[in-house]
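As the work plan foresaw, the team has encoded backbone shapes as discrete tokens. One protein thus recorded appears below exactly as we store it.

:::
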Amino acid sequence: MVIIHVLLISHFYNRFWWPQDSGTFAHIADRMAEGEVFEKDIVDFHPGYLNFINAWAFELFGKDFVSLRFPLMAITLIQSGLLFLVFVRFQSSFGLIASLLPTSLGVFQFLDPNHHWYCLFLTIVTVCFLTVVPPKVQGRRFVIGIFLMLTYLFRQLSGILLAMGVVVYLLLEDQSQEDDDQFSWARLLIIVMFGALAFYLNKTTNPIGFILFGIWPLLILLWAWLNVRIPNLKFFAILKGLIGGAVLAILPILVYHMIHGSLWAWIEQSGVRAVLVVSKQEFLSTESYGYLIASGLLNLFQWKSLADVLNGFYWVLIPLMSVFNFFLLFRFVLFSPERKEKVYAIPLIAIFYSIVSLHNQVNSYLFFTISCAMLGILWIFCERNSQAKYLIGFVFSVLCGVGLYFHAGQPLFRDFIKGERIPFAFAGYALSRNHLWIDPADLAVYRPLIRLIEEETLSTDQIFAVPNNAELYFLSARKNPFRFFSTEQGIQSEEDFRAVMEQLKTAPVKLIIERTNDKRHTVWSKAIMAYVKGHYQFEQKIGRFEIYRIPENSVQ
């Protein structure tokens, strides 16, 4: 297992590049490594633990995009080892398949050092811990509380969804056989979770997403409300343990912000502004996983080649894994006469965590969670010792092979439905801070763009990327004049807009670069560019980037 994963990681770790995402993480980490205070000098609507890891990676390995991959590959190897150890008790082959799922159908499908992979890692650690460690072990809930808060401090929504699944599991796990006529606080909490989740799903998803991911956790909550029988003392004991661990996990970042006087800024950015930004991202509602299923079926009907058939099955089956996981859980666990009050942590929690994929219904978001549902399916068949586990193991092995051969580390803008593979180009010869193998089309744009920035500006000059291209600051080693890296996040009101415009007028920047037709443009960023086009000189266009230079006679 270790050899296979080391070989895979050695091949894929420096392949693929999503400029805007990677640029955001690198830009924030770069400024933090230079001594700027998170949320005080530079803002982000995520709670921040990932940014500290990235800043430390720069300190250890140097300021390069590839440096951010090393912590990511470390947790990838660790989570694979954990899954192997948990599943190997059934058979070594199932341990190997389980270890490959979040790698080949997870990290390698979107090789970007973002929050989701760290949340997936913590989710896998949580379910493995709950599966292996007996309920009566002292401190079990405390440790789980640490995992839940850590997940939240990487990405708020992921932490909340994981916590929902864990709480439901713990309530079902610690059942009482005695009738209790008291008011049930546990059932009240289940009602609150049901209402909150229903509200979120109503605001964020479409019918296809609701059927694939949304309805199943609601049904689990309804079933739990009808079946949970737990005394209030036990319920508060569970909450006490979880809260105690959560407090310990949040202490480091609280102390950091208290020392630097940025506590309120942290709360505002990762709380209030995070909700505002996401609620205004209209492009999130334009995608649907129905496209993947329909395209996969079209591949099968056309039947032109073996690659079409394999990719057809791949895109039909992958989005349905959470549905399969739910029905297997209900059929063979929750409604089974052989249940004996035992509920499986891996498939149950996976149903809640899969809602993460509804945030944006594109193929990359699908892979942030789908391996959890597949692990749940594999666990149910292995635990029941059903002969069907061999068929499931074979199907999952084929899906892993298709994922690795046709899709792992590949650019997003290609015919991924048919598994088209794009050759890579090494960026290190042209971009000093990017020793990755990337899409040649990206290199053809960024090489002349960064060269122009370096020729037109001094290392002490400032540039301004609109609306959301922080990779330009990092690649060119030029300063960002603002605390925010994205106008979409940093400008939420007319007051924010006036402050930005005042700074641009009193302290003009040397170059302003706009990525045209970007989905993250807002009314404010468009107003900024209207001003720029009236007061700056158009330099040239490179790819989708338009470059504007301050006139020579302007006050600097």
The chain has a mean pLDDT of 91.
